Amino acid sequence: MRLIDSYTETSEVVMPDETNNLGRALGGWVLHRMDLGGVVAARRFAQSQVVTASIDRVDFHAPIDLGDIVVLTAYVYDVGETSMQVRVDVTAERPSEGVERDTASSHLTFVAIDDAERVQSVPELTVETAEERRLREAARNGEPAAPTQ
C-alpha cells in the first residue's frame, strides 16, 4: 500500500461549544479530532478496523480561535507487522484575514484488528515517489507537510 493512499484531510469551523472561556479551541477537542484523523488514515492503509495504541506527545504550537477553519492532515509514514505510525498536523485558517498557522502536531500509533478484534498484519508501506519520500521524511523529522500534488 502506498503512503499517499492513507493521506486524509478534513476541515471544520470552530464553534462556541468547542471553545474555552477565552474563545479558543479546547485542547481535548483538538486531540479528539487528531485521533479521528489518524483513525481514517490508518483504516485506509490497513483496510480494516484499527485501534489507537498510543499517542506520542502532542505539541500545541498556537491557539485556534472561535470561527477559525481547522484543517487536519494525517498519513501513515511507517509500519510494523501489525502497527502503523501516523503523522497528524493541525493548522488554523482565517481566510478573511489571509492568516494560516500551524497549531498542533503529533505521532499516533494504531494497530489493525480483524472482525473478531484480534490483532492482524498490515500491508507493507510503499514509498515510490519523491513526494511520498518528502512526506515520510517530514514526518520522521517532526515537520508538518501537506502534499504538493
Automatic annotation (TrEMBL):
<dbReference type="InterPro" id="IPR006683">
    <property type="entry name" value="Thioestr_dom"/>
</dbReference>
<dbReference type="InterPro" id="IPR033120">
    <property type="entry name" value="HOTDOG_ACOT"/>
</dbReference>
<dbReference type="GO" id="GO:0005829">
    <property type="term" value="C:cytosol"/>
</dbReference>
<dbReference type="Pfam" id="PF03061">
    <property type="entry name" value="4HBT"/>
</dbReference>
<protein>
    <submittedName>
        <fullName>Acyl-CoA hydrolase</fullName>
    </submittedName>
</protein>
<keyword id="KW-0378">Hydrolase</keyword>
<feature type="domain" description="HotDog ACOT-type">
    <location>
        <begin position="4"/>
        <end position="116"/>
    </location>
</feature>
<dbReference type="InterPro" id="IPR029069">
    <property type="entry name" value="HotDog_dom_sf"/>
</dbReference>
<feature type="region of interest" description="Disordered">
    <location>
        <begin position="126"/>
        <end position="149"/>
    </location>
</feature>
<dbReference type="GO" id="GO:0006637">
    <property type="term" value="P:acyl-CoA metabolic process"/>
</dbReference>
<dbReference type="GO" id="GO:0052816">
    <property type="term" value="F:long-chain fatty acyl-CoA hydrolase activity"/>
</dbReference>
<dbReference type="InterPro" id="IPR040170">
    <property type="entry name" value="Cytosol_ACT"/>
</dbReference>
<dbReference type="GO" id="GO:0009062">
    <property type="term" value="P:fatty acid catabolic process"/>
</dbReference>
<feature type="compositionally biased region" description="Basic and acidic residues">
    <location>
        <begin position="130"/>
        <end position="140"/>
    </location>
</feature>
